[in-house]
Amino acid sequence: MIQLENIRVDFAVRGQSVLAVDDVSLAIERGEVFGIVGASGAGKSTLLRVINLLERPTAGRVRVAGEDITDLRGGELRRARQKIGMIFQHFNLMQNRTVYDNAAYALRVAGKSKAEIARRVPEILRLVGLEDKAQAYPAQLSGGQKQRVGIARAVANHPEVLLCDEPTSALDLETSAAILDLLKEINARLGITIVLISHEMAVIKKICTRVAVMEGGHVVEQGEAYDIFATPQHPFTRQLVEHTLNLELPPHLVDDRQGTILKVLFLGDKAEEGVLSTASIRHGVAVNILHGKIEYIGHRAVGLLVVLLTDSPDAPAGLPFPLRLQAALSYIGSQASHVEVLHD
Amino acid sequence: MIEQWIAANFSPELAKQVVELFVDLLNAFGETFLMVSISTLFAIVGGLPLGFLLHVTSRKLFWNNRLANVTGNFLVNVLRSIPFVILLVLLLPLTQWVLGTTIGPTAAAVPLSVAAIAFYARLVESSLCEVDPGVVEAAEAFGTSPLRIIATVLFPEALPGFLRGLTVTLISLIGYSAMAGIVGGGGIGDLAIRFGYYRYQTNVMVVTVVVLVVLVQLVQSLGDRLASRADKKDI
């Protein structure tokens, strides 16, 4: 659906050239929800704006729906943009126009007939759940409602692609979730390809099928959202994922420990308790779960447990604790997807 | 009728004075009205497009044109930096060329219009700078042409600012019009200076000043009302 090839964007900031996006290539499939995640200043917002040429790349090609739009100008570019919807972090609604007029904007720009606009606008306002707010002004709406108007405006003209620039960053947690659900619904019901950028892994995790991770103008890692989340490769991605999982232990648990603290990752259908209890019984170690989380991405689970292994008072006589611990570790290691010793 | 009432209760001289003042005031009011109306019309017709030109040719927007921007800014700054009294005299040849005369309220309206265009253009430009650039970006993202962005985004979003700016311009023009007496333009301000200042008729000055205060208040409250009706930003 969207092919970005060797995109490079240079900015001139106070006479100095800044490289915002450096040789990025992405292929986004029809109908998917593609996420671009990164810290602020990573170039993700610039990259998103390259797709509808709000930002013209210094080098590289942009193809949308099979058409190379890189060199389009004037009327041709405007017609191409009419097939690409966009929503914004700060909604960017016209303050002096009603919800109805804001939602109708893209249709009017595309030169639709009055009758068609009068038919389409109520339909699209119903889709975003604002049919009763048609005559309200943006100032009378909550943040979430404003973003719904933004979404209505963006999808009114049946675009093939919807670009989302930090769509939930100005919203509270609950409203964010509702907006993401709406985007997901729009993706599923209307089949619109969505490209979404965010600095929050949690947003990506909730709706994206595939993800690209950006740092310093580069895409450092890309793949299925599940894989990125479950087995991040690049240090920056790992940091992002860890930040989202937030498996931090209170310091006293670490300081007063009498054993080994492990982080154990289970993917898919692995029976977590089974592995740990077998290890406990078979090797005579006590397993204490200190922290744990199971995240669902799409319909697949990522289980993360932080456990403490200590000497069990019921251990059979014979092998000393360090050897039994070693055996337990290697058993868990062979069963779980990933094991990391946090503290010896 | 009032004349007779004053003559009977106070003195015939006072009655005569009041009537004369009333006639003078009415004349002066008509002249002010004429001058200010013409120059306000030109402020809108000339200042509005010039303000848009200054804005859309600036670096941030779609018609980035340095030459037009610098020229426009320079022109506006020059006109704005010349004190109106001097502009009035400086533009006498222009007035002569345009109207064939340099005397009367219509003649005074020429320099007033020039000042008004420059003044209002600056206010229009600053109102346009207040429009959220994100809204313009959104319009661009939906494939809106530059002219259409001006008509459907910039104009309606900045309209409250335009109305407030027009109010300020109108009031400044009423003030400027007082100097129109120099070229025989007349008007309320001129009346106040001629009678009140040169002839020491303090009462005439007080009356005209009161009339001016009332006029300015009216213009301001009308402008405020129109602007807040157009403004949906905080309701």
Walk me through the structure.
The complex is a heterodimer of chains A (344) and B (235). With 344 residues, chain A is of the alpha/beta class. Chain A folds into 2 domains: 2-233, 3-Layer(aba) Sandwich (Rossmann fold), CATH 3.40.50.300; 251-343, ACT domain (Alpha-Beta Plaits, 2-Layer Sandwich). Chain A has helices spanning 44-51, 74-81, 99-109, 114-127, 143-155, 173-190, 201-207, 225-230, 235-245, 251-255, 272-283, 321-335, and strands at residues 2-13, 16-28, 33-38, 59-64, 67-68, 84-87, 161-165, 193-198, 210-215, 218-224, 260-267, 285-297, 300-311, 338-343. Chain A has a 6-stranded mixed sheet, with helices on both faces. Chain A has a 4-stranded antiparallel sheet with strand order 2-1-4-5. In chain A, a hairpin with a 2-residue loop joins strand 1 and strand 2 (16-28). In chain A, helix 3 (99-109) packs across helix 4 (114-127), helix 3 (99-109) runs parallel beside helix 5 (143-155) and helix 11 runs antiparallel to helix 12. The longest helix of chain A has 18 residues, at 173-190. Chain A starts with a strand and ends with a strand. The model of chain A has no long low-confidence stretch (mean pLDDT 89). Chain B has helices spanning 2-9, 12-56, 66-81, 84-90, 92-99, 105-130, 133-141, 146-177, 188-198, 202-230. Chain B is an all-alpha fold and 235 residues long. Chain B has a single domain, classed as MetI-like fold. Chain B is elongated, with a radius of gyration of 22 Å. Chain A binds chain B through residues 52, 54, 75, 77-82, 84-86, 88, 90, 92-97, 105-106, 108-110, 137-140, 153, 157, 163, and chain B through 132, 134-135, 137-145, 148, 152-153, 156-157, 159-160, 230-235.
